[in-house]
Task: inverse folding
């Protein structure tokens, strides 16, 4: 069985397929706590973006995930 852990905090996921607290975003697998931290950290930027663009948002999200997984902290 493949062991999957959160890209950011390295928390092990026992059951990533059925675990609804695990998310795949922009090529990263992250746990709910890290996803919340990312959402929170990009929220001010997202709110100031006019007009809102989905492509831009996905880019921002995946950049933030790349950065957080390198730091090991969201
Ligand atoms: Zn995590």
Result:
């Amino acid at each position: 069985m493949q062991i999957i852990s959160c890209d950011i905090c390295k928390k092990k996921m026992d059951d990533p397929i059925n675990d609804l607290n695990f998310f795949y975003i922009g090529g990263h697998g992250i746990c709910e706590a890290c996803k919340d931290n990312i959402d929170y950290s990009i929220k001010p930027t997202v709110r100031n973006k006019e007009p809102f663009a989905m492509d831009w948002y996905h880019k921002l999200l995946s950049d933030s995930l790349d950065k957080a997984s390198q730091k090991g902290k969201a």
Q: What stands out?
A: DSSP finds two helices and four strands in the chain. The mean pLDDT is 88. The CA atoms of residues 10 and 40 lie 20 Å apart. The two ends are 27 Å apart (CA to CA).
